[in-house]
Each structure stands twice: as structure tokens, then as C-alpha cells.
């Protein structure tokens, strides 16, 4: 469990290094969907995603590591690479061999070394631990780490300072790092606000886990356009927070995610990645949702 | 000729109806191109483009027209349709028959009637004048109108209030409405700042006209991805302003325009239309430009 104080501490630690991102809205989109929509815009964050918050908050509490290492084919990789630059230490990112060259190039552009030869979903975790042991580098997990969870919560802390309480907030759910941080803040500051997670139907491990009362593992990595939430199981540390603070998790269809991304680009004129469409997607499927909604936009690392 | 006072008047008239758009920047893009780039962001304007400024400024000075009519297959059409809603009068937009259905739908979404049957580049102007005469509607020209020019200048007036003087500003050039308004403001407020127009090589009628000392007409409509600047000749009213206030006009290749748009989406995370890539394009061709640059982003009506 993490507390609002952990998130406050993280916010102070991060402030010199990252952006306070704006809350955006679109009158035409509000009219189209019949809601008041407030978009907390982490696609405008350093590295193009909120992930830098958690990675850097963890890195800043290590007391001078020799280097950083992580396993990620997405935004967390750039977050850790950014953190290593802040610390002035080397960084290794283990990426699956079949990850796109664009993503590998993005990670290298932050000065990290990419290790990908022979790396698969079966041996990735092991490769990271080997590098961590052999080189004495610190492994920053993408979500199952209290410092990472507290860091991700700082976007919600900013949001509570930027606007009045919405009726509900909607948050994409992967391993649970983002929603556990956000839910901790929202339920402490605005106890009346509902916290709603959103997963692709293809990868609804957290929804199933909540229904089962225990962590359920999918049989295979989910095939979804929302490539930021392709985890197979909620985290051991994040899941209890989700159980405590999240009111419900909705699952949405692939075409709703794509249409949500398109609507955000068309009306907000913002470049967002498919995964950032998740919080808006339930509105396109007629989900019963209250009037005033906060939506957390996770990232903008996508090129048309 | 228009003056700074005309633009100030327009700004007061427009203020209750439109956005004051932000000036955006990107540290990573600045590092990549070795400049300080300030993007005046009219893709975030009402209707998704600066064109609403000129159209509405003209409409607000008509003293109760029966209706508005214009000829446009682009952002000016939406600007005039928006203006008609502010005035509460009907609006007819004459569009070329081969304009995209998406653009026609966008104009209809603002409540305007689209007339397109049998409309071509040969008879479009005549069709507008017929509608104007028969129905008593006022024809708002897309650029060759002092009220339109003054309205477009208001984006530059805001820019001068939002930042310090850059070494140069870069502005896309079509018929000359935008650059004549902007140049009037910049050269009055910041006489030391260079005003540089940018055209596609495929449609460099203004550059040729400046060299010739008189208005040159292209033999055919330019074929360019920058569909907001497909005029064949500078305006009769705009050209003298361009001659007086614009330091030079550069022409850029199609691939530079596309790459500029891509860079703006990647680094600023903003959805901009191809024509909005024009001001950035000369930097990708190694043009000799000073250090601190203001770039006017004309619009964001584009969908990946």
C-alpha cells in the first residue's frame, strides 16, 4: 500500500525534472458525447508519457546506483533511460527481439543501451536479472514497485490541484502501476469520485482478477492495439491497491479504442497513442457514466 | 493597406468569440534543429484554423446581412460558417464538386448549406456571385478583403503580447491574407524582425510576383500536399502589403513539407495539417535563418 504522503514526496522529488502537464478539453467533443471531459495530458510529459514519473521517482531514491536496467518495449523504457540521464549513470534496456526498430531507436536516443538479441517473453525477465547481478545495476520494474506507483500518482495529485472534483476518473489498466497511484490520490482527496479502470477485452486480467478476488493470469499476452497494457496479470503490489480503491474495471472492444484515439486527435488536435484512447472508449460503447469525467491520457508516442 | 489600428480593432471585435491560442515549443525539436522555435498554435483555434479570425471580423462589420456566402474548399469555409452562426444568419458555401466528402461534411456540421453540383475552378466565382445577388447574401472573400486581412493579423498581435521579439517569423503564403495581416503587425511592433513567407515550389506565385514586381498568375492550380495554399495568384489588395512588409518568400519541396508536419506531430504532439508544415520546412532544407524564430501554425484539420 502507498499513501498520499508517498505521492506528495514523489511530487517534490520530480518537480525539478519533469513537466506539470495541462488539463485539456474540447467543446465540440463534449457536445458530441454529452459529457464534460477533462483530459490530464501526459502525452505532453517529458519522454511523451507519464511513465517517466514512476521511473524517475524510483531512481532518485536509490542512493547512487552503478546503473539502471529494465525490461520494457514501451514508454517505461524511455522513462528509465531519462532517469539514468538525470542520475548520470549508464542504462541498459532489455527489449523483446521483435519490438519495433522505431521503439529501439527511441530508447537509444535517450542514451540507453538496448539488449535484444534472443530476448523473448519467456527469457526477458531472466536476462534483466542477470544483467543486474553481473553489472550491479538496479532493476526498476515497470509497475510492481511502491516508488513507481507513488510516482505515477503524482499526475493525479496535479489533477486535483488543477480542477474541481469530477464525478469519476477513467484510467487505462495494464500492470496496475498507474491506476494504483492515481486511485490512492483520488480516493483520499475526493472520496466521492468514482475510480474506473479500463482494459481491452482482449486483456482483461485485472477485471477478471477483481471478480475472482485473486490475481488471474491470462494464458497468452493479449493481442490489442493498446500496446501499453499488454501485461498478463496484475502486479503483486498493485493488485491490493486496486482491490481497495478502484470501484470497477470496464473492458472495451478494439474498435472503440481506435475510434477514441481518432476522436481525441480530431477534436483535441493532440497526437495520442492508441492506449491513450482507453479511458474514452467506454463512452463510445454506451457505458453508464456520470456527467463530469477526468480522463488520464497516458502517452503520445505514436506516429501516423 | 491596413494598419495596426485595424488589427487592434479586429482583436477587440473577435475576443468574445474565439480563443487566444497558446505559443508552444519543444526542447527536443529545438535541439534537433539548432534553433529556438516558437509555434503560434492556430490549430487549437475555433474551427481548427486561423481562418475564422478574418471571416468573423468581416462578418461582424456588415451591419446585419441576410446571409453569408463564400467559395472555399478549405478552412475559410468553416470560418464563414462559424461567423454565420455568431450572426444567426444562413450561410451558403460553394465548394468544388471534387472536394472531399469529409470537407463538405465538416462545413455542413457548422450549419452551412454546401452548393457543389457542377462547381469547378472555372465557374466557382461566378456561382458565388449569382447566389450573392439572387439571395442578397454577402460574399466574404477568402483573402482579398481588408477586414479579412486585419482579422488574420490578430494572431500576430497576440503573439507579440505572448513572447519577446524573435529574429524572424515564418508564415505560409497562399492568397496573402494571412501574411499581409501578420506582416503589418510584426513590422510595426518589431521593426527589426524579418518576415519570411513560405510557399510550395509547386505554387510559388507570390515569390515570382515579388521578383517580377507585379502579380504573376500560375498557368494551373498548384499540385501540392499543402492544400491550404493552392491559389494561382496573389490578391490585388494583399500583394501591395506583401511588397511593403515581407522581406522574402522562400519556396520548399513537397517532401520537406511532409517531413515538417511529421516532426511537429512527433515533437510537439500536435495534430497539424500539411499546410502547417510550411513555416518549418525551410529549416529542413538548410535555409539560412537566424536563431530565434516565430512560426505560425495555420491549422489542424487533418486526420491520420
UniProtKB/TrEMBL annotation, chains A, B:
Residues in Tryptophan synthase beta chain-like PALP domain copies: 15-289
Keywords, in A-Z order: Lyase, Plasmid, Pyridoxal phosphate
Keyword Ubl conjugation belongs to the record: no
PANTHER family attached to this UniProt entry: SERINE / THREONINE RACEMASE FAMILY MEMBER, SERINE RACEMASE
Pfam families cross-referenced by the UniProt entry: PALP
Family: Belongs to the serine/threonine dehydratase family.
One BP annotation, GO: D-serine biosynthetic process
Name recorded for this polypeptide: Putative threonine ammonia-lyase (L-threonine dehydratase)
Keyword Electron transport applies: no
Alphabetized Gene3D superfamilies for the sequence: 3.40.50.1100
InterPro entries attached to this UniProt entry: TrpB-like_PALP, TrpB-like_PALP_sf
